[in-house]
Design a protein that fits this description.
alpha+beta
């Protein structure tokens, strides 16, 4: 999965420059789709909520648009390995304008599930 970090990478570009980047972005998206590599992808809205605490007792606004850490969107890819995903991420047209791409593997279950399985297995031995 590619996670695009940075919401306002275009702020110092002219409208023509933004259009050029977006044209390259659409072309990149279409090529990955045609090859069957791209399985899903969407931009994310800037507003949202962060839920935390026992029973979700804390609900606050976030992520904040001014944060460089905010995730702007994602691509879900089907690739051979992490290296192939990194190579695809390197083709992101907005990298040169400050956008960051986080490359993550999608696990079959959450890490807590793996830890629980490991602990249960060790107890059974």
């Amino acid at each position: 999965m590619l996670l695009f970090r940075g919401l306002h990478w275009e702020k110092n570009l002219s409208p023509e420059e933004i259009q050029q980047v977006m044209t390259r972005w659409v072309s990149w998206f279409d090529k990955l789709s045609e090859k069957g590599i791209l399985k899903a992808g969407q931009p994310l809205a800037e507003e949202g909520k962060i839920v935390s605490g026992t029973g979700g007792q804390s609900v606050v606004d976030g992520p904040f648009a001014e944060s460089k850490e905010a995730i702007a969107g994602y691509f879900l890819l089907e690739v051979e390995d992490l290296d192939q995903a990194v190579e695809i991420a390197r083709q992101c047209p907005a990298l040169e304008h400050g956008l960051q791409v986080e490359v993550r593997l999608v696990s079959r279950c959450c890490n807590a599930g793996h830890i629980a399985e490991s602990l249960m297995s060790s107890l059974a031995d």
